[in-house]
Design brief:
Blueprint lengths: L3 E3 L5 E3 L9 E7 L8 E6 L2 E7 L5 E5 L13 E2 L4 E2 L6 E2 L6 E3 L18 E2 L1 E4 L2 E6 L24 E9 L3 H9 L4 H4 L13 E9 L2 E7 L6 H5 L8 E7 L3 E8 L2 E11 L5 E9 L8 H27 L13 H15 L10 E6 L1
Antiparallel strand pairs: 1-2, 3-13, 4-5, 5-6, 6-11, 7-8, 8-9, 9-10, 12-13, 14-20, 15-16, 15-21, 16-17, 17-18, 18-19, 19-20
Helix pairs in contact: 1-5
Protein name: Aromatic ring-hydroxylating dioxygenase subunit alpha
GO molecular function: 2 iron, 2 sulfur cluster binding; dioxygenase activity; metal ion binding
Pfam family, one: Rieske
């Protein structure tokens, strides 16, 4: 059972495991791992999945379990059209889950195989990820009531990069770590980012958006080296950061006709572990040689710093410590918990009445 600590503001902070949000899209894996005729596995929200790419290029996601005797379908075969269970040879169309053949049936059997379904989920390919719509417990399949997320791009020419890291903590700790504005000078100390000596007071404006909140458009921090590089273009630099349930942080940086955008997700693998995925696109320094491998190198180091911190934090959380959230640096975390509770309760109540100005040092 998870433990829950409540702050003075009544905000619950869960320990080893977290309550999960269903009926939404989550990235299962990178689609470059999906080859025609091959099956791949993933775990989302404690749900074992088998994924693949049909001969026509369409991707699919099924529960990795045959409805007959429960053996993982990933242990079977896939010919580009049908997934075949290795136990009794039952064949399924993977996008619908419909059974199309039960080899053991004879002419005297009255069972209609096509009335049997393995569990299949809505699955879409976006920005190099297989996004899967995960319905709530007890529902075999849920029709997606919203579009799968996609990273915003602002021109036809751009470069991209992907990063990923497993975190040994629940999704709540992963997400509030993602949005935490005060850890940068300590977790991300590096000559190419910032130092502890660079700490200064920050004032940021936030506004409510549907199922989330936005750090309103502003000039980015002057004590972060990557932002300083944009000064070579001689244009004002402006950044906007959004967080939207269940797990998505988007950042857009504009400098004249130059831009950078990123979508970062913290996805629950199980109720006590999660994974961070980053997809970024940009036309900044588009014609500079080696910019993509350099960006990936430093981006991987940045994500690794967060990963190491989460590993260290997980050791402390094993002992069920008391936890707290403070103002103003932890206000976004409080908004997240309130938004999540409103989603789980079905009230849709937003914790923000309007624009808010927050202050912290980082």
């Amino acid at each position: 059972m998870p433990f829950v600590t409540t702050t003075e503001a009544g905000v619950p902070i869960q320990g080893p495991s977290a309550t999960l949000i269903y009926d939404d899209w989550y990235p299962a894996l990178r689609t470059d791992t999906l080859q025609k005729g091959r099956l791949a596995t993933a775990m989302l929200l404690d749900l074992p999945l088998v994924l693949g790419r049909r001969s026509d290029g369409r991707i699919f996601a099924m529960r990795d379990s045959c409805p007959h005797r429960g053996i993982p379908l990933s242990e079977g075969w896939f010919d580009g059209k049908r997934v075949t269970c290795r136990y009794h040879g039952w064949e399924f169309e993977p996008c619908s889950g419909q059974c199309e053949l039960i080899p053991s049936l004879t002419s005297v059997d009255k069972l209609d195989a096509t009335r049997i379904y393995a569990t299949a989920y809505p699955c879409e390919e976006r920005d190099g990820h297989a996004w899967v719509y995960v319905p709530g417990p007890g529902r075999k399949r849920g029709d997606a009531d919203r579009a799968a997320p996609e990273l915003a791009k602002f021109g036809p020419q751009y470069r991209t990069a992907h990063l990923s890291a497993d975190l040994p903590c629940n999704v709540d700790h992963g997400i509030i770590g993602l949005m935490d504005p005060a850890h940068g000078p300590f977790v991300h100390q590096a000559w190419w980012w910032r130092s502890r000596a660079s700490i200064r007071e920050k004032t940021k404006k936030f506004e409510p958006i549907l199922e989330g909140f936005r750090m309103s458009a502003h000039a980015p921090s002057g004590n972060s080296a990557p932002y300083k590089l944009l000064g070579v273009y001689g244009q004002p630099v402006e950044t906007t950061i959004d967080f939207v349930l269940p797990n998505r942080r988007t950042e857009t940086i504009r400098c004249g006709d130059k831009w950078f955008s990123s979508l970062t997700t913290v996805t629950p693998v199980t109720s006590s572990t999660c994974r961070i995925d980053v997809i970024a696109a940009w036309n900044v320094f588009y014609h500079v040689p080696f910019v993509t491998p350099v960006a990936k190198f430093f981006g991987a180091k940045f994500v690794r710093q967060d990963q190491v911190t989460m590993i260290q934090q997980a050791e402390g959380l094993k002992h069920n410590p008391s936890l707290m959230l403070i103002d103003d640096a932890d206000k976004p975390a409080k908004w997240y918990f309130a938004l999540k509770q409103a989603r789980l309760d079905g009230t849709g109540k937003h914790p923000m009445d309007g624009p808010v100005e927050l202050h912290w040092r980082s």
